[in-house]
Amino acid sequence: DLVVVGSANADLVVGVERRPGAGETVLGSDLAVHPGGKGANQAVAAARLGARTALVGRVGDDAHGRLLTASLTDAGVDTAALRVGGAPTGVALITVDPSGDNSIVVSPGANSRLTPEDVRASADLLRSAAVVSTLLEVPVETVAEVARIAAAPGGPRLVLNPSPPRELPREVLAACDPLVLNEHEARVLGATAAGRGAAEELLRLGARSVVVTLGADGAVVADASGTAHVPSVKVDAVDTTGAGDAFTAALAWRLGAGAALREAAAYAARVGAVAVTRAGAQESYPTAAEVSA
Ligand code: ADP
User: Fold this and answer.
1) Considering the domain boundaries, does residue 21 fall inside one?
2) In what pathway does it function (predicted)?
3) Which terminus of the chain faces fewer neighbouring Cβ atoms within 10 Å, N or C?
């Protein structure tokens, strides 16, 4: 069983010939609205694989919030701890040009109002989970409260994807088992080396275990027993949006089911590979049967 504490955003996407500069107005395609946000993405990815999954988060009392709640419910995610109100639902305003380059403005909205008290109100739910997965699209004090619950005796295992990246309080880093991040995020957290070296540096900085994802090159896993490379699966990538979220969710679910870190990362790499062969984020996530096939 997996509990995700994290963000839910509506992604508002418009295709444009050219992204606008200062003071400029351009006309674009019809608006597409997609459910997104790293927390909701992870919860949907895990539920689609077959994990019993709940999302602790916050959306606004508005149409975007209802869209997100519906997409989570359709995937089988328990939304009883998804709070409603306090600010508009988070949105990402995305313009994409014909070459695929984008410009994005994120309004965190309700995600920024998810408080440590909200987490404490769901403490029993968190303690009942094998694994709790979180990320930095909600306030760092809120993540710190999740880490405290995880670090207490009998607490769940903590998986943290530090995205968007920022320096972490020492006690948060010390609760991560694993920290799951790409090389860019690893640099912001203080790693100077790439790949294997970055994973080992973050382990020395205090994480209990580390998984560095390397896109088409797979991932590196490091813990007290050593460091190993997990290969990716060769696929024709179509759209990598949300692949990292699918990877993290799959990893967290397999760890909760008792898999070793390497084994869980190998499974997560297969899930990430399927996700990049399909367009979109949540729309691209496979079932366990599709991963086996
Ligand atoms: P992020 O999107 O967070 O930067 P990555 O790009 O490292 O994350 O992707 C996460 C995981 O998804 C990778 O570790 C890998 O397993 C899988 N993946 C991503 N891109 C590809 C690809 N082109 N081919 C195969 N697998 C991929």
Assistant:
1) no
2) Carbohydrate metabolism; D-ribose degradation; D-ribose 5-phosphate from beta-D-ribopyranose: step 2/2
3) C
Sign of CA dihedral 108, 113, 119, 121: negative
User: What is the CB neighbour count within 10 angstroms for residue 66?
Assistant: 14
Strand partners for 219: 213, 230
In this predicted structure, the answer to whether residue 121 has a pLDDT above a threshold of 90 is yes
pLDDT at position 100 is: 87
In terms of residue numbers, what domain contains 249? 2-8+37-89+111-292
Q: How many independent structural domains does the chain possess? A: 1
Q: Is ligand 1 within 6 A of the CB of residue 237?
A: yes
Q: Is residue 117 part of a domain?
A: yes
CA 90 to centroid of ligand 1, rounded, Å: 25
Per the domain annotation, does 16 fall within a domain? Answer: no
Q: Provide the 10 A C-beta neighbour count for residue 293.
A: 8
User: Which residue's CA lies nearest to atom 12 of ligand 1?
Assistant: 272
**Other residues' Cβ atoms within 10 Å of the Cβ of residue 86:** 16
CATH number at residue 63: 3.40.1190.20
Q: Compute the average pLDDT of residues 214-240.
A: 96
Distance from C-alpha of 264 to C-alpha of 271, rounded to nearest angstrom: 11
Residue type, 257: A
pLDDT tens digit string along 166-211? Answer: 999 999 999 999 999 999 999 999 999 999 999 999 999 999 999 9
Which residue of 213, 238, 285 sits with most ligand 1 atoms within 8 Å of its CB, as the best mutation to test the pocket? 213
Which residues are CB-contacts of 225 (< 8 A; sequence separation ≥ 6)?
none
Up-side HSE of residue 16: CA atoms within 13 Å toward CB?
18
